[in-house]
Each structure stands twice: as C-alpha cells, then as structure tokens.
Amino acid sequence: xxxxxxxxxxxxxxxxxxxxxxxxxxxxxxxxxxxxxxxxxxxxxxxxxxxxxxxxxxxxxxxxxxxxxxxxxxxxxxxxxxxxxxxxxxxxxxxxxxxxxxxxxxxxxxxxxxxxxxxxxxxxxxxxxxxxxxxxxxxxxxxxxxxxxxxxxxxxxxxxxxxxxxxxxxxxxxxxxxxxxxxxxxxxxxxxxxxxxxxxxxxxxxxxxxxxxxxxxxxxxxxxxxxxxxxxxxxxxxxxxxxxxxxxxxxxxxxxxxxxxxxxxxxxxxxxxxxxxxxxxxxxxxxxxxxxxxxxxxxxxxxxxxxxxxxxxxxxxxxxxxxxxxxxxxxxxxxxxxxxxxxxxxxxxxxxxxxxxxxxx
Length: 361
Known about the structure:
By secondary structure, the chain is an alpha/beta fold. It has helices at 14-37, 40-44, 101-106, 113-139, 199-214, 238-249, 296-301, and strands spanning 4-7, 46-49, 54-60, 82-89, 91-99, 145-148, 151-154, 168-172, 177-181, 184-188, 230-234, 269-273, 289-294, 305-319, 326-338, 344-350, 359-360.
C-alpha cells in the first residue's frame, strides 16, 4: 500500500528541512518492514483498491443446466435474476504526532531517538489499525455491526444477516428458487455437564465443519463444493490452540494410538487472532470453544471477507506557528465488510450446561 506525502510551504526552518528527508525515508523503511510481516488482513481478507464513495457487491443466480428437448421443439427459456446486494462504505481514519522544537534543537547530528520512534510507531499504528479492524470484524461476526475506534462498522452480509447465522438466505423466488442454510453450528460435548473439551471434540468440529462448507449451496440451490483450508481461533484459549495444533500437525491420527492416517495433515493453515479475546466462563466445564473454518478459494471467488483501500496512508507535515513544533498528520480511508457467508462457518463446542442456539452438527 503506497504512501502519499504532502509538505507545507512553512518548512522554512533549516533544521526541519534537514530532518524531513531522513524521516520520510525512515517511514518508508518501516512501511516495507510491516508489509513483509503480514497479518490478519492479508491472511483472511480480499484487498482491493477503490475510487468511489463505497463499493457494491451484487449477487445473482445463474443459468440452470441444459434440458433435453424433443426433436423439432424449441429450447426452454432461462434467465438470470439479481438476488442479494451488499454495500460497503469507506470510513476515514486519522492520527498525528508532534516533534517538539526542543527535540529538533537537540538533534544536532541527525534524527533524535524520540523522533525516530514516533515516526516508526506512526507507520506501525497504520498497519495495526487495519489488522485490528480485520480481527475485530471476524471476532464480532455473530453481530450485524460493531464499533471500532468510534466508527460504526456494518458487518451484515448481502442477505442482511450477520456473517455467522443459522438462517442465511440464498436464491430468489423470481429466479431458480430460494432457501435457507446455516453457517453457525454447535457441537455438544456428549451432553454432559462435566464435559471438558477433548481432542476428539476438536477433530469432530473441524471434520464436520469442513463438510458443511463443502455442501454450501449457491444462489441456484446447487452445492458449491469448496474445500475448507483455514482454521481461525481466538488468541486466549490455549487448550483449544493445543488441540487444534495436534489435530492439524501430525501425519498420524492424533486421537488414537493405532497410527492411523490423519486426514487433516497438510491440508490446513492455522490463524490465531491475538486481539480476539474470547469471553471465558468461570467454570471451565461450561466454556464454549469457537472454531472458524474458511475456504480461501471460496473467499476469493464469492467476495467473502472484503477490504477496500480507498485512500492509502496520506502524510502531511508542517510547522506550528505558535509553538514551532513539527506536526505530522496521517489520513487514510477504507471500507471493510462481508459480501458472502458461503466461504466460512463457525463451529462452537459447548457442554450441556452451556446454552447454544446454533444448528446442531
């Protein structure tokens, strides 16, 4: 993501002029470093440029399969109709930092350490903002909206439901038919009040959740057949993380001692979201454990998790006439949201004493 620089004509202080270029280079270097590190935005979202106020994602059904026709008769007429539409509005974000006159006075031989840190942290804050809003969108995806840094973010999908819901819509009555399907599932831990999470529970959740994604229906009501390849979990559930890594990381069946083949080995990417801090129950036996499964291919093809970069980080700097401090101001604007729900599902493992409104899996 490129940067846009703008310098005011007030940079007539020779010391400011001497420091402007090194700080700009420092910011660019930090940008390159942060881009190489990646994050939730890069791993889980489709990133696209935008030149408009917002972006609209339009879904429609498709032609059905060809039908046989008796000799001498005409073809059966078919048509395509619009089904659901999603609009993602771009939100502006801003931040600024100040290099005081005293800092500049003391920077005799170059950029002072405080100025360096502020410039580097400025860029980190930009990338952190985008990654944190991406993580927050996933973590709050059972809701149709969330508040992030004073902004209200629309999290509803094209059918108006939350990303994870039991009553998602597909199709249209005026097209090839309509229906409902769920991508929010519950796995009851053997209907016992004493049931702690087990390795077998985690394997069941991943196996059954993957099958649900594969059998998601398109706008015609036909099975899509996408293969799930990404597991997403919160950052504060070490028991769940341990079991997920055991299920995914061994070529042998992790739940038995028979050295049977592990069907999950080598087929998954694990993403742990550090800022997704899942609410913990006082009694571990009543703790619900969420596991999100996603198909990267479906996410891309169906416009699932979307991030539109309207204005990349734009930086302007000037000298304040009253204080003679050097002010750096950053502005960016982007939109984030969900178009489809068919690329992803949430499986929640819970005990009998924990309430669950999910579709049982």
